[in-house]
Structure formats: C-alpha cells, structure tokens
Protein 1
Amino acid sequence: MGQPEQRADGAGPFTTRLFWDRPEGGTVVWESRPARRRGVLSVRGPGDGDAVTLSASADAAALGRLRRLNAIASSAFVIGGALFALGAAVAQFGSGDALVSASIYFAGGLFFNLGGYSSLLQVLNGPRHAPGSGRLATADWRWWGYEPMRLDWLGTFVLFVGTLVFGVNLLDSFLQGLTTQQVNRLVWTPDVVGCVLFLVSGHLAFAEVCHRFRPCLRSRSLGWWVVAVNQLGSVLFMVSALAAFTRPATGSLVNSAIANWGTLTGALCFSVGGVLQAFERP
C-alpha cells in the first residue's frame, strides 16, 4: 500500500498546515499550533468543510509534558503581567519613588523571561507530525534548538529575545545620575526594541494561526484569542514606550500618564492572555 497523499499549506515559505487523505475516506489535518499546544490532529469526514473530530494523537508522556510546559508559561505571563500592571499603578498613583516601581517591573520582567523561554520549550519539545503519515511523534527532550524555518520556533524565539531586551531596559532603569541622552540610549531604546520584537512575534503568531501573513478572524479558535489579546498588549506597550521618550530640551517625558497607562493596560492584556493560554492545553 502506498503512502497517503499529502498537501501543505502555510504562510510564505513556512508550513503551518498539512493534509493527509485517509484510505478509508476523509482527511487528517495537522496544524502547527494545535499540535504543539494540545497534541491533537483534526479529522474531516468526506465532504466536510470543517474539522469534525479532534484526535489526541500524541502519547501520554508527550501530553503530560505539554500540560506542564503550558502551566509554567501561562502562569509566568499571568504573574509577570500582574507585576508590570502593579509597577505602572505605583508609578501613576503611588509615592513617585521611581526605585519602587523599577523593582516591581524588574520582578515582572523575570517572569516574562520565564514565560518566553517556556514558550520556546513548548515548540522544541512538542509532538511533530510523522513524515508521510497522519500521526504525531514525540522526540527526546531538548533545552535548545535552532529551527528558523519553523514559523512557531521563529515566533517564540523572537518573543524570548524580546523579553531579554526588556531585561536590559529594566536593569538600566536602576542607574542613577544619567543625562537625558543616556536615559534615552540605555533605558528608552531597549524598551522600544523590546516592543518591536514583541510586535513581530505577535505577527508571526497570527501567521501561524491564520496560515498566511494577512490578518484573519478566527473567533471560534482559542489560540487566535490568545494571540490577539497578547498582540493588543504589545501595541499598548509600544504606545507606552513612545510616550516615555525623554525630551532633550526639557528633560521630561513626552507624556508620563500615557506611558504609565499604556504599560498598565498592556500588562493586563498579557495576564488575560496567560489565563486564556492555561485552557489551551491537551
């Protein structure tokens, strides 16, 4: 018996969806995000336009691995987002002590680092589609890997690098006696770069869910909502960063209220995204 016919779909050079025609009829569909997040394939009956069955194709060990990684990543983003929101609230409504809010931001940044790295581990250690067959296979555990032609790896890698760049921004915010130029170079610039990386990561995540680089609406997909809420948070972070630029002529921020409120609302988006992600599990 020959191999089942296989067809591919995706965004640009990246494959995010595969189809196998079953000998008994119907089609097995592998999609990147559901497979690595939930360990499932979908099955379409003959003539069905939508997936009618979700088949838990990964083995029990792989599903347990996915649950643990998802719990760590989602909890890290919930806590990290909450701490960032608290830091912004202290900056906006508190005593005005920059060291207090900087300390809270730094603690939140550590959780964002953990969430970003856990997301990368989800990609590296999630079940893969077995070539030439409509099933999933689980590889050995890896702490690191380089797979730039996988859209999910590229998106989570950019996210993780973004969290590290934010770490530079948060560390530099503890420096005292900086000139306006030094503040903009050492604190503001890493903030903006981190925001850009978050936005790029969110766009790649949308491409993975939509199977194309153009935007799409998948209101019935939990994964789409996780990506959408997080991307809204990234947009708000960018608004906050732009408002936090220090004017060389006056030494004051462009708009401190917008900077604080942008951070607060953006951080809450990441917390909500973390809560939603907790349910995107096997």
Note: The mean pLDDT is 85.
Protein 2
Amino acid sequence: MSTALPESIGQAVAGLARVPRLLVALDFDGTLAPEVDRPEQARAVPAARDAVLRLRGLAGVRVAMVSGRALSSLEHVTDLPDDVLLVGSHGIELRLDDPDDVVGLDEQERRGVEVLQEVLGEVAGAIDDVWLEEKPAGFALHTRLASEHASRVAHLVALSETAAELEDLTVRRGKNVLEFSVRSTTKGEAVEHLRRYTRADAVLYAGDDVTDEDAFAALGEGDLALKSGPGETIAAHRVEGPEEVAAVLALLAELRAVAHPVER
C-alpha cells in the first residue's frame, strides 16, 4: 500500500530530482529504522533500505548516512555497500571513498577520554539499567531502559561530575541518551563537509533527533530538510516516521530515474 505524502513534500522532491548532483544524507535511528531498546538490533525498514539502494545507483546521486553512532556500529546496522558514505559520532568519524579516513586524538584528548570513562563508568555502575557506550572521542550514557527517576538522576550526576573534571567538554542531549565528547563536531558540520566533498548542487537531509537540528540549520535554499516524527524542529517538512521517510525516498528515486536516466 502506498503512503500518501503532503503536496508540499512532493513538490520539493520533484525539484531535487532535477538537479545535476544530489546528496541524500540520512540519519539512521528513528529515521530509517524504528527505535529499539538494544541499538545493535536496529535495522532499516525494508522500504527504506530498498529506496536507499535504488538511489545509490542513480546518475549524479551520492547517499550518506550521518549518525551519532560510532562508525563500527553504523556499518553493522546499515550493512550498505562501500560507495555509501558513512559519518559516525556526529562527524568525528568518516568513511568516504578513501578507506584511510580515520579519527586521531591527540594526547590531551586521550587523557580526557580516560577521565570520562572513569567518571561516567561510576555513574552507569551505580544506577540500574543505565549503560555506557564507548565512542571514538568520548562516551554515550544510555538511559532508555531505566525508570524516569533513575534516568533523571543519571543525567544530573553525569553532567555535574564531568563538568567538575573536564573543561571544554561537548555534551549532546538526545532521546534517552547523553553524549560526552572531548572533540566538538556537529551533524551540521558533517553535512557541510559532505556537500563540498560530493560537490552537490542540492541536499536532502532527514533526521528525527535534537542533534539533527544542526544538520537542518546547515541547509539552504533548494535543499530539503525532512523531520521524522514528533518534536520541535526548524525543518520545513515533517513525516510521521521511517515508513513515511521511505516513501519520500522512493518518490525521489522514481522521479530522479526519469529526470536523469542512467545510460545503458
């Protein structure tokens, strides 16, 4: 059964389909994949995966995944061909066409990560159903499985203790997660980098979380910002969730194939 899309989205997608070089940059969790309790079990809904694979084969299109996940985790859950660009840890990690693009921390940053591990490890160890995920430049404190009270306490203690130990720490608030990093990057910076890298004439970015607002802010006239799900947003367009995101991507693939047919 097809998903009906607002006319405004259809018009915006039709415009994107005609540009010479198009970047389709997508968040994963909550955008292509439903939210799950165990992050390693997340998978894109079949229609979204099919649309992504179709788009990557079209003329003048580059597809990228832009996530707060560590790159290794993003590779695992997306399971996409190597020509799909991957951005992990909000832009700290990149998998572009050169496999040697990797993150490297300096000595001061490495010491900061060690302090974070000690402080946040104590928080996670003291509160039920709170756990720590290692990132290349820090850690994510997950509270999705914890009670509302336990989650609130974990967040307050983690913020207080890390602020007392480290200066110039980057903290990002997401859905049931606090991310602490010794290096500051945003999804907006990642999208700007990808735009330059791919020499894109226009960008579609879809995301669902607070951290995706930075990416929306990096878009301009002729681009398409697509919010997945509820919550405040600066995105001009919104759909209900991954199934509807998939419908937008499928429509884009259909129109792009007509506007820029691949030579056989």
Note: The radius of gyration is 19 Å.
Protein 3
Amino acid sequence: MPDRPYHHGDLRAALLSEAGAALRRGGVEGLSLRELARAAGVSHGAPRRHFEDKAALLEALVADGLRRLGAVLQDAATPDGRPFGTVLQDLAVAYVRFATENPALVDLMSASRYLADASDELAAARDESFAPVRRLAERGQAAGDLARGDARRVGTLMFATLHGLATMANNGMIDPLDDDLIRGAADSLVTGLAPTAGGPY
C-alpha cells in the first residue's frame, strides 16, 4: 500500500498533540514517529519535516509542556489584589493539578538530560515557564512577605516544595484533590521564608 501523501494544515501541532496523547497512554516507550504519522493521517516520512528523530520530538514535547505550564502558573499568579499568601496557594494548587493531570509529561520535563546543556529554545522555554514563580518571589520580597535574597534561589525553594507535593500525589502518597493540604503547605512555605532577624531565610 503506498504511503499516504503529506497534506496537513499544521502537522507539527497535530504531531505534538498526538505525541502528548501517546505519552499519557504509554510513556516515552510508546512514542513512535511512524505511529504518530499514522494517527495524523500522513505518510510515515512526513514527521521528519519537523522532527529529525524521536529525540527531537521529545525535546519539542518538553518545550511545549514547559510553555503550557508557564501559562498555567502565570494565570494563577497574576497580580490582582489578592494577598501574597493567597496567590502562592493558588499557584501551588495550579502546579499540582497540572502535574497530576500530566504525570508522564512532567516526568519527561524533569529528566536530567533536559536540565543540563539544554538547547537555546529549551532553555528559553524553561525560563519562561518558571518566570511566574520568580516574579512572585520578587513581589513577595518587595512587599516584605519574603526574606530578601536571591529571588531565583527563593523561587527554586518554592518550586521544590510544589514539585515535591506533585510527586507525592503522582505516587499515590497524597490525594491530588486535597487542596487544603496543598494550601497548607504553601502557608508553611511562606512562614519558613518570612523575613527574620537572623538572616536571609
């Protein structure tokens, strides 16, 4: 049977969508450019116009996931008059919800090979994704809700707490729908990072 022709309005977006669905169903091992082409209804060679190989597809998935996460975090952390603690609570719930709805994607995004020696595109997506957390830390410091210090470091501590909660939820150790627990953890984080006379943390 001859290959199906390459005709698609936005093949790259369609392939990423199909790849995301395949990742949710079977993890990284379940991803195949040939199967994605079949699902998108194009010839098996068509995906290579956008992704040289599976590794390139995975990197694109990570970049797309980071941008989606960044949009979720930005929406949760948008300044709108809420107290700092409430914003952090909402951001914490948003991150844990995203991570529990996309566990395989978040695992892929957290893989060490995408954290070191990242391409320029991936590094930009990563910085964009976590910028809402950093900006929230900066606002908290400016308002006196958080101790002064390196905002990136404070943001990293905040993210580490959120990612830990998400990992526990994905492992079945906590109920991902227990927003009260997540909000309580955010409150404890604010208390732990509050300004003190003894030092920056």
Note: The domain at 9-51 is CATH 1.10.10 (Arc Repressor Mutant, subunit A).
